[in-house]
Design brief:
homodimer, Arc Repressor Mutant, subunit A, 2 domains, two-stranded antiparallel ribbon, 4 helices, 7 strands, about 30% helix, DNA-binding
DNA sequence: CCGCATTTGTACGTATGTATG
DNA sequence: TCATACATACGTACAAATGCG
């Protein structure tokens, strides 16, 4: 698979699709590291900007994670633990603010769940580690 | 409030914080339009890159939305309708793939909810329009 | 319908800062 | 200390969408 600079689809989207398909096919399993930005830049003959944009796209989807000075990896999704929704309770999902992301140490592309108890208490938890459930019988 | 190019916090983060506080204070209410990128670039004496990075940050948080050729606005959050979680059902939140985002016409920074019925049916809905609930009494 | 100005999107280059090992 | 890799930030240029006259 190659990249066509004259296609109507942007170069960085093409690279993102290419990498995504490699992840989905299992060629790049969770935990696998990506070549460096400059390597990808040279390998595909595109600017480093385009490489960074592609990776940023995948990070925002929760597919990749990047550490400064080290590199980029296919994200390993953590196991989800069940959170039982209390009778009369509710929950919403949203993206965290920058501060919340920092304080909760969340990867990019990870939403949070706001779980509201009937008594007014609010709990904010990482959405990638949580599954909201309701038991069969009350 | 101004921007300090020699601060240890990146210029684009400073601008994002500045704009976020203007949103939170009500100075930029939902629906308000931002000055153009070149305008902000000149007003604060920073590069257009930095302006775009700041706005991208706020888009990823679901605070702003941008239309090519038109501009950027403070996002108006839609009303949430209640989705009652069935007994034995569950729900998770995650970011949509690019394709899902396109097909469901979702803004950046909007997660999706996967609602699983006990019979195995899966429903994918925009998280910004949905509130998961459980009634008081079964 | 056409052309124009405005605005955002893409893509390149360069330079320097900062984290990691 | 050093090489590597990602982050920030400036610049330029052109493409593409929009709205208006």
């Amino acid at each position: 698979m190659t990249i066509n600079p004259r296609s109507h689809t942007p170069v960085y989207v093409q690279l993102a699709e290419l990498l995504r398909s490699r992840v989905e096919s299992g060629d790049l399993p969770p935990g696998a590291s990506l070549p460096s930005e400059s390597h990808l830049s040279q390998e595909y003959g595109i600017g480093r900007d385009a490489v960074r944009a592609a990776i940023a796209l995948l990070r925002a989807e929760g597919v990749m994670t990047t550490t400064k000075g080290r590199g980029t990896w296919v994200r390993e999704t953590p196991r989800r633990s069940d959170a039982e929704l209390a009778p009369g309770g509710s929950a919403i999902a949203r993206m965290p603010s920058s501060r919340e992301r920092r304080e909760m140490d969340l990867d990019e592309g990870v939403p949070v769940l706001e779980i509201h108890s009937p008594d007014g208490e609010v709990q904010i938890v990482p959405a990638d580690q949580t599954r909201i459930t309701r038991p069969q019988s009350a």
